Amino acid sequence: MSNKQPLPGGTVPNEVGSATRLSRPSPSKAPDARIQQLIHQINKHGYAIIPNAFSPSIVAEAKAEVARLTADPEMVGPAGEKGRNTFEGYKTQRLYALANKSRVFDAFALHEDVLALNDEFLDPGYLINSFQSINILPGETTNGATVIVPDSHLWDSHRVPSAEETIPVIMPAGSMLFFLSTLWHGGGANTSDGSRLALTAQYCQPWIRPMENQILAVDWEKLDEIPESHTSIFSDELCAEISTDV
């Protein structure tokens, strides 16, 4: 059997086709009972909360690293001081391309529960769509907790939620919110005196162009620092997203 694919200008070996380049082996074992319960929750309501996913020490280290990077003019990026438009938020600070800025953040994008859920909801070879910190300046309802509309991932494209249908996701620092991008969601208003910091890792299907081009965003000399399991979802969205309040 030939391993060639006919093309208008000739042939190309199958092993260099997109199916080979972007593939990643499917998980070899079924998810355990706890992950299956999370999958059921997400299928039914569009989201799931994983409380206390990260220890206080990891949370404190991440907060300190965000503060350090925000104070560094060479690392802060285009939206680190304040957002540039209404979507980013004029009173919101965002650090993009966290994979290029510090290895402290790797644990958040590579949490085993997140990867197990991604294996369920995304094709093999899924990618990082965006990995950033979002700091809503002066979740708890008063300080900009993420708001969602449960079950809205099942709606058609014409239905728009009312304010009464939204709920704030209030969870302890170090907890994770995993939700499908088809779920209506957003950042709540921060009416407190303090800021609300979250890290968000967004993942997409291998055939969709990511928001952040990690091939350009991550410096070549830093590639050896990144875990191999991480680089495979950077190079090559249905989207899934996680937010971690820190």
UniProtKB/TrEMBL annotation:
What this protein is called in its record is Phytanoyl-CoA dioxygenase
Q: Can you tell which superkingdom this protein's organism belongs to?
A: Eukaryota
Which InterPro entries does the record associate with it?
Phytyl_CoA_dOase-like
Region Disordered, annotated ranges: 1-32
